[in-house]
Structure formats: C-alpha cells, structure tokens
Amino acid sequence: MTAATQAPDQNDPAVRAEQEQRLRAVWAPPSGVFLRWTDTNNNAVGAWYTLTAFGMFLFAGVLALVKRAQLAVPANDLVSASTFNQLFTLHGSMMMFLFAVPMFEAVSVLILPQLLGARDLPFPRLSAFGFWTFLVGGVFVAGSIFFDAAPDAGWFMYPPLATRTTLSGIGADIWLLGLSFIEVSSIAAAIELIVGVLKCRPPGMRLNLMPLYAWYILVVAVMILFAFPPLIAGDIMLELERAFDWPFFIHERGGDALLWQHLFWFFGHPEVYIIFLPAAGMVSMIVPTMAGTPLIGYRLIVVALIATGFFSFGLWVHHMFTTGLPALSLGFFSAASMAVSVPSGIQVFSWIATIAAGRLRLTAAALFVLGFLVVFTIGGLTGVMVAMVPFDWQAHDTYFVVAHFHYVLVGGMVFPLFAAFYYWAPAFSQRPLSERLGRIAFALIFVGFNVAFFPMHITGLIGMPRRVYTYPAGMGWDMPNMTSTVGAFMVAAGVLVFLVDLARNLRPTVSAAAGNVWNAGTLEWLENDTYAARSVPRVDSRDPLWTDPRLSEDVKEGRYYLPGTLTGRRETLVTSAILAEPQYVMRLTGPGWAHVLAAIFTAAFFLLLTVKLVTAAMICGILAVAAVVLWMWETDPPSKGKVEIGGGLRVPTYATGAVSHSWWAMVVLMLVAGALYLSYVFGYLYLWTVSPQHWPPNAPLPSPLWSTLSAVLLLLSGVALRLAGRPARFLRVSMPTLVFLGPLALVAALAVDVWGQWQAGLRPQESGYAAMVFTSAFLQAEIVASILMMSLFTCARWLTGQLDAMRRVVFDNLALLWWYAIGQGLLGLLLTHGFPRLGM
Amino acid sequence: MMHGSRAISVALWLSGPTIWAVHFILVYASESVLCPRPAGVAAHAFLVVLSTAAAIPAIVALAYLGGRGAFVAEGPFLRSTGIALSSLAAIAVLWTAMPSLFLTACLRPV
C-alpha cells in the first residue's frame, strides 16, 4: 500500500502549500502550440466547445441574414432559388445540430464539475473526443455552402426529395454523414453527463439537494439516449437507400415515405425539449440568485421536468397532422401536445413566483431571463394553437409556424443562453461582462426579435408559405416581410454589441476569476483553479454557500475531502447515485493524443465516405479504431489500496461492478444500443402494417433450421462467457481462450442467419421487408464487431498482466455488451424468423 | 452500489409516466393494426376503454406502493415527487383517452 495513511494537518500552512503545489502540478495544462490541444481538463475543453458552438450560431445567423435580405422585397434576385434552398436547410440544420445541442453539452462540460464540487467529469477524454468530432464535422458541414454543395432538402430531409439522388445531390450525403458526428458527440456527452451527475456529486448531495441545473442535465441526457437512436436508425436507412437502393421509403416496393417522418420526428420533437430544458435549467439557477431567495417549488420543478421528459415523446405526430393519418390518432397527439403545456406551465409559474417572492436585481442576466419568459410564453401559446388539428391544417408550412418555432427556440434557448453568459462570466473570466453593453444588447435583441418574428404570424395567416425564395408583389406580404428583415438586422446589431462586450471584457481564466459577484449560493462560485475547488465539500443544503458562510474558506483551506492528490494522478471522488455516499477515488485520464487522433480519423472516415473515397475512408476507419485502442490502453490503472480522503474516511482506489463509473457508462451505452434496435423494430412493424403484401408467404422465408442453428450458436457463446467470468479462471489460460472463441460464435450465428436468408432467395433491394431483414443483421454486425475488438483487447490485457481477478473492469465491460449482443441476436431471430410465421 | 430495493424504488417512482407511455403507444399503435381487420373500429374502442380502465388503478396502486414502502428510505423527496408524477400521469392518461369519446377509430380526414 503506497497511499497516505495519516490524515494531513490542514492547520499547517506548509502542508496546505505542499498539497496545492502537487495539485497544480498534476492538473497543469500541457503547453506549446500543438500540445495544448491535447488537454482534457473540463475548463479547457468546455471553453473551446462553448466558443465553437457560439461560432456556429454566428455562422448560421449570417445565413439567416442573407435569407432575410433576399425576402426584404418582392421578386428579389439577390440569391438564386437553389442557393436559398441551401441557406434555409443549412440555417435550420446548423442551429439545431451544430449550435443548440452542442451548446448545452459545451456549457455542461464547462460548469457541471464545478457545480458538483467535482474535479472533472468522469471521462475527460470522451468529452474532448466529442468536441473534436464536433469541430471537424461542423466545419465540414458549414463549409459545404461555399462549394454550392450544402444540403438543400430542408432540415428534416423528407424522402423522396432527400432519397432520390437525381433530386438532391451530394448535399443530402453531407447532411446524413456529416451530422453523424453530432450523433456520436451527443451520445458521448449524454454518457458523460449522466454518469457525471449520478456518480460525481459531492458527499451529502442527495438527489433532493442537487442544483436544478444538474437535474435538468440528467433528464436531458436520458432523453438523448432515447431520442437520438431513432434518428440514427432513420439515417442508416436513408443512406442505405441512397447508396445501395434498399427501398425503405419507396411505397411501390413495400417501403413508406412516412416511415422517415415517424423516425425523424420521434427524434425531432423531444429534440425541442432537449434544447429547451438545459436553458430552463440555466434560468432555474439565475432566477434565485438575482431574486436573492431560494427557488419556489423545487420539487414541483423536478416533477415538471421529468413529466416533460416523458410527455415530449408523445408529441411527434403533431408535425405530421397533414399526412392523412386517422383522425383519432391525430386526436391522441393533439391531446398530448396540450398536456405537455401543464409541466411547462409549472416551471414558468415557479420562476414568476420566485421573482415575486424576492427582490429582482435588474441586471443584464435578469433582463434576458425576463425576455425569455415573455418570448417563450408567446411561443408556448401559439404552440397550443398549432396543437389543434384544424388550426394546424391552416397554418402548416406557412410563416405562422416559422414564427411559432422561433418564439419557442430563440425564446426558450437563445435568451437564456445570453443570460447565462452574463451570469457565469465572472466565474470563468477575470472581469465580468459589461452591464451597460449587456442592456444595450438585450434591448436590441429583444425588440429586434419581436419586430422580426411577430409579423410572421400575420404573413403566415395571410398565406405566405415557408421556404419560398421569393414572392410576387401585391399579396399583402411586402410590408410584413420588410419589417421582419429590419428586425432581423436589429437582432444582428444586438449580437454585435454582445461580441464587442466579449472582446472587451471576457478574459478566460480559472485561477483568477472575478468570483461570486452576484452572491450566488451554489458550488460553482467557490474559488477555483485548474483542479476545480481546492477540496471537495460535504453538502447538506441546496444553496450551500448561503447556508454555510464558512464553506468557501474551509474548502479553500482543504478542510474537506481530497485536499491534495492521493494517487499522484488527476482524480475525483465517486459517490453513490442517490444518497451521494463516498465510494471510491477515481483516477482520471489526462492529456493525450490518442483521443484527438481518434476524433480526426473518425471524422475523416465519414467525410471521405461522403465524397465516395471508400478505400481512403476504410483506412481512416482502421486508424480511428487503432487510436481508440491506444487511448483505452492507458485507462484502468491498478488499485492503490485504500486511501484516507479526509474526515477519517477511507475509500478504495479501484472499483468494478455496479459501483464503478465504467459500469454505469456501459449500461447507458447499452440503453442507446437497445433504443436503436427498438427504433428498428418499430420500422419493421410499421412497414408490415403499411405493406403486408410484401411479407411472407409472398416473400421467401428460410427453413427454421437456420434460425435454430443461429440461436444455438448464440447460446453457446453465452456459455463461453459464463465460464470465462469465474474469478478463479482469471489466472488460467482458459479465460482468454474462451474470451477469444466466444465472440467467434456470435459471428457464426450472424453468418448463419444471413446465409439462411440469402440462400432462400431474399435480396435487400427487393422490398421494404427484405431491406428490413438485412438491416437487423447490419445492426447486429455493428455490435458483434465491437465485441470482437473488445475481446482482442481483453486478451491483450491478460497477456500483458493487466487483467486479474481483482483488476477486471475491462472484462466486466466486455461481458455487459456481450450479454446484450446475445439478447439482441435472439430478439432479432424472433422478429425476422418468428414474426412472419405468426400468419397475422 | 445500486441495491435491488433501491432500483425498485426508482422504478416505482417513475411508474406513473411509464404507464402513461405504455398506454399511449398501445392506443395509438393499435389503431393502424386494427383498422384493416373486421370489427376493427369496435375492437379499438374496446381496447381504449379497457387499457384506460386498467392504467388508472395501476398508476394509483404503484404510487401507493411506492409512497408506503421503498420511498421512505430515501426520505420524503422521492415520495412526494413520486406521487405528484403519478398524479400528472393519471391526468395525462385520461386526457390522452379523451378523443375516443368524440371520434371513432379509422376515419381518415384528408
């Protein structure tokens, strides 16, 4: 045992100075022109991430200005119809995928650890990997417009417009493959944030004491797990149809164009809440501070938040009211769309009540919050209007809808974001932002926004369709359009003032920040450095800085947990998910090249596929995998025994099983994989309800022998896994042998299944049914490929003596995914061989 | 360690909205399955009534179980929020089923 066994004396300044010096050395950022980009510290990565996402906002905003300039007067010819199509598609796609979602991830990476008194999030390299894929992918997608190659089929890419290569060129591929990054980085962020919120809270911070922002992030991250997989499933199908003619969306061949709309909006509607809720979380932090009183209705807000998370998945068809679905179905979705306004209303009333209960300081941040309340509420009210089916039939695809969703999204996300910039700047900058410039920016943005978007309600109601590049004079649309354009440029002027403020006053720092200028009560306002707070506090209230005036000083003097470094590496404390009891000290990965290279090669893989350079893409794919292996090789250090973390508490330095952060991450990843497969199952059953005539007996079905053989192979693989997992076996050669051979049984099971279908005469291009059958195998192949890599990795760890009965996280993670693969394989056999035999 | 009992209390805590989700998918998805079949309209109406009549008592029973038993260990927070979540879910289930009072299944308006 190498760890300190004696508690250090925190009253001794020499001890404190020595601790601080060691902490600083361990957390020192890499320096140098290139090396600095290998940093993984959340305050570096979070800042890059936030800045990049804001850059995307500016770029997409400029696209909008070009659009508004084109529409200012009738019959304008500033841009062509084709350019206009690219402008609105890219504006929508970028604002949603490259700004709104990444921005929430960015801000969370930046502030969540500090908010939770943690040293960093549990997977720092994963955050950095997410950032780098986002940066490369985002620049690629944004840059496509300069080559006249931007996507132009609208941000929701409906087939057949988006699937016919003659109608939509390379732009659709750029959308599909380019935005795959955002899916990758969002899921990476969701895993990071869920495990971060549940396992990295300070001791004593039970669920009911968590800052509301952490609650919002937890719910949103869980929503991402279930909302993004349907989009990924849809993307896979759309790309398979474009590239290989698998007819998922072609009605004559047993597909259905509406399947894409279902999958897209099953993602797309929760997406609106994925964007809005983090912003609402920011508001829930800003309002109590500015009003100087704890938030009223904490519990109700948590309830409202979870209810919104659930209900938002029951709204997707309200984007499809005009597609000819049965009236009763529309009724269900209309009802759910109205029901979701109840939890949203609860939150709005809580904020208003808190403002009424305290004394609101009218700072720039508070003004943006008030602006948010007004604008978002108007957007909510027009939302209830379009939730009514008959009204929606009138307003669908007109400027009324454009006005509605800008009120919701700009009101619900952009205003709170500006508020957050003004509110949190002092925690991360030497100087706060200027209140005077903030007020000017607010006035310009608030007035400009309403001038731009309020008239659009009218333009829509008098018949102007969205997405037209120009219009004839004399339709009554001239004046409102000109007004909207003037408003849009006012907003731009406001953003410009904000940029001037950033340039003049934002001086990013973690060690010499302006500090708690608002007298806020939560932990992110503790004195910070590169290693976050000096020690990890014990928390027993929601606003610890308000209830315990000595807390700041005690934390700074290292009188709480982890005052120094116990293992000589970057580390943080892991606590239990509900009660936040200390469980173990986790050692974090530090700066490195592997995750940066993994991100760049992953990006290159997708981008080269877009331009059909398949061989080069494959080489980059292999290099990406190699980089990931290199990155993983440095994780999972051996135990250093038990260590004293302060306050007489001794905890281990290694954990596996349900206690460990990596177990939680694997489980979350399996939920993503499960949601992806269930989205596929939905698609399979959906096509069956639409085109049952393409199903067996009108299509070939292999003999049950094939599926039985495949199932037996899956079960055999399970036996190998079960035997390999015995602790005693870890010392013997039979363990790596089983780990090597077991996954081969998974490969054989998949091969038998596919060969069975093939020899029966089924081809994926034949029908929607056939395409679906082979897609099941495609999804299984992805998981099996991951298991093969993980099994080789596990064997390599065993051979190099880095895997034993105690240090077994690598094996346990493999086992989790392996069990999952067996389950998914069996479900797939039941679906593709069993369901058609039901004879329904 | 996430103990079994703790996992159960979290499951009970979210039981209301979960039942809402199951009920919602059932009443919505069954329409397109039942419509092409003989007596599909009546079968769907029956299904809506039956599933709603089952969902409400199920929400109440699970909320009661949660409130009485496993939640207590985690303090009043999980109990009060669990009951509030279940109440919201019960309202949402009734609200979702309501269109069935005014519309029959399988009508295509456009």
Beta strand % of chain A: under 5%
Number of DSSP E strands of chain A? 6
Q: Span between N and C termini of chain A? A: 66 Å
Shape of chain B: elongated
Structural class based on helices, strands and sheet pairing of chain A: mainly alpha
CA distance, first residue to last residue of chain B: 55 Å
Which range best describes the helical content of chain B: under 10%, 10-25%, 25-40%, 40-55%, 55-70% or over 70%?
over 70%
The residue-averaged pLDDT of chain B reads: 87
Mean pLDDT of chain A: 94
Q: What would you call the structural class of chain B? A: mainly alpha
* Strand percent estimate of chain B: under 5%
Helix proportion of chain A: 55-70%
Instruction: Name the chain pair with the biggest interface and residue counts per chain.
Output: A-B, 43 and 43 residues
Radius of gyration of chain A: 27 Å
Enumerate the strands of the largest sheet of chain A in spatial order, edge to edge or round the barrel. Answer: 1-2
Radius of gyration of chain B, taken over Cα atoms and rounded to an integer in Å: 17 Å
Overall form of chain A: globular
What's the main sheet of chain A like? 2 strands, antiparallel
Order of helices and strands of chain B: HHHHH
Q: How many DSSP H or I helices of chain B? A: 5
Question: Would you write up a description of this structure?
Answer:
By secondary structure, chain A is mainly α. Chain A contains 25 helices and six strands. In chain A, strand 1 and strand 2 form a beta hairpin. The N terminus of chain A is likely disordered. Chain B is an all-alpha fold and 110 residues long. Classes of the chains: A mainly alpha (840), B mainly alpha (110). At the A-B interface, helix 9 and helix 10 of A face helix 2, helix 4 and helix 5 of B.
List the helices and strands and how they pair.
The complex is a heterodimer of chains A (840) and B (110).
Chain A lengths: L12 H14 L15 H30 L9 H35 L8 H20 L26 H9 L1 H20 L12 H33 L12 H35 L6 H14 L15 H13 L1 H17 L6 H24 L1 H7 L3 H30 L6 H27 L16 H28 L22 E2 L2 E2 L10 H4 L3 H6 L14 E5 L6 E6 L6 H17 L3 H20 L8 E5 L2 E4 L8 H30 L13 H21 L9 H26 L8 H32 L9 H26 L6
Antiparallel strand pairs in A: 1-2, 3-4, 5-6
Chain B lengths: L3 H10 L1 H20 L5 H29 L7 H22 L1 H4 L8
